[in-house]
Amino acid sequence: MTTALVDIRLLQRPDPAARLKLGASLRYAYSTFSTYRDLFESAGVRPDALSHDDPIAVLERLPIITADTLARVSEESLSAIDGIVDMETSSGTTGVRKKRFISHEDDRNDHDFMAELFRVAGITERDRVACLDTDPVYLMVSFARALELLGADEAYVYSVGRDEGQTLDALVRLDPTAIFAVPSMFERCWLPLRRLYAAEGHGSLRKVVFLGERVPHQLRAELESQHDIEVFSYYGAAETSSLGIECPVHTGIHLYTDRNLLELRPSEREGSDDQLVVTSLVQKTVPLVRYALGDEIVLIPGDCLCGLSQPRVDVLGRAGDSFSILGSKFHYDSLLRSVFRKLDEVGYMQVVLTTEVQDVLTVLLPDEMRPHEKRMKDSLLSDQLELEFLVASKLASLRFEFVAESYFTGSRKMKLVDDRRKGAAA
Q: Which stretches of 356-420 are assigned E, i.e. beta strand?
């Protein structure tokens, strides 16, 4: 599927080197993939234009592509590309589950770039880095490989199983100086980790690099102000690999526009400036041409004091994690924080939307949270005044339901917002 051309603009005008890369990438996509060739020709873009016209002008003639078009390109890469060594998949939280096949060349380029980003975050050869993952490990393997390329003193994937006490006790004995983790997993581990560090009387942890989710402000503030732990946000996607990272000035994530040409399309989400559209400049196995990534961002104006020229953004998350009820807009992250505000830690949660006589918002939580239902519901409604109004006015219903924890842990990444209402986007 492609979408009609809309009012979009470049995040940053490409320099001459990036412009040359763009022209080469467009010619490569046309000559290698029939899916792209058909798409280009349907937009009136022929080989002569690809060879002689300004690549930005050519790009602007092409439609925005979405997940199903990318899926066809991905399947085509199996026969079009030699030397495929790996595959990454997305969770499918915003529709079609995306698959990116990776050649040896792309694999090496990905890990070299990740190592460069981790260097920006201040990771050095003196660091001992634990990459926290679930069992079986998968998500963090690439990060450990990039850290090895960087020359970190230690870099390992550490599986946090169900017996957190025992596994975290062993982690404290390893005494990492840095931890890489998804925020929700780190939050689950942080309270027992903090107690273990206090019992030991010391701890070398000085940096945490978060990935995969928006970093909760409360968690960042606690780590930085109470424990002198520096927090960095890494940004990437299954379709693109790495896109950028937060620098030591901590005023946003720098997006590296020498690897991807980034465009912005207007967003309907309150508090967001735009959604990202990506055209890859270096990716060969599954190249992206005006791919609607769907991530909501806020632009940060001005130059950064760190000296990097790459533009800065605040990444709010995928558009699919937001929804509206009778015109009132809500976002998963905000609801999550409200539900768990009166408790010591943040846990698993899913939001399910259905329609009966009225819209019904069901909050799914692990069984162990059942005793806290009233406190959690009161906290949610006191924070989310628009939701409280809808419920009090009987314009919508709110339910809490409890399920086995395996419902949340059985897959790598569940759908955070499951909108089952008639006419809702898939």
A: 359-366, 396-403, 417-419
